[in-house]
Design goal:
Elements (H helix, E strand, L loop, with lengths): L2 H13 L4 E6 L2 E6 L4 E5 L27 H7 L3 E4 L4 E4 L15 E2 L4 E7 L2 E6 L4 E6 L6 E2 L4 E6 L1
Antiparallel strand pairs: 1-2, 2-3, 4-11, 5-7, 5-10, 6-9, 7-8, 9-11
């Protein structure tokens, strides 16, 4: 299948808020799913679908890592999440030698850039869309993020 066609389909999915598209071309089939980071390709001779990889666990060295304890949940109560609007690679700064858009303690408003997410060689600036102070950064620079994954927690 044509990669540029698949890229156009992904853009259409995003623009029209579609979660799944099933494309068939003769005996070839591609299923695109937004938010699951899975692309399945089933050739006519294959009987089992390609399994999607599970989302990576949060880095335990980061504040609010994957502990899942009641203490962490109560600490996070009242904090506003900034979630990833797409699947891609998280970058905390506009270039490798530049300083991060935000750090813990940074003040943000609705128009503040907080990070960049790269998807299909397109770099998308992500806005805070809320007002407050960055309380926690939950992902590492260069980490793959999922649709809807919490990137930051903001104290209003």
């Amino acid at each position: 299948m044509d990669v540029s066609l698949l890229e156009r389909i992904v853009r259409l999915m995003s623009a029209n808020d579609l979660n799944t598209v099933d494309v068939r071309d003769g005996d070839k089939r591609v299923i695109l799913k937004r938010g699951a980071a899975a692309v399945s390709y089933v050739a006519p001779t294959m009987s089992a679908p390609v399994a999607a990889h599970a989302p990576s666990a949060a880095n335990p060295s980061l504040p609010g890592g994957a502990s899942g304890t009641a203490a962490t949940e109560s600490e996070d109560a009242g904090l506003v999440p900034i979630k990833s609007p797409m699947v891609g690679t998280f970058y905390s700064s506009p270039s490798p030698d530049a300083k991060a858009f935000v750090n813990v303690g940074s003040k943000v408003d609705e128009e503040s850039d907080v990070c960049i997410i790269e998807a299909m060689k397109v770099f998308n600036n992500i806005k805070a869309e809320t007002r407050g102070t960055i309380a926690k950064i939950l992902v590492n620079n260069g980490q793959t993020v999922e649709f809807g994954q919490v990137l930051f927690l903001v104290k209003p």
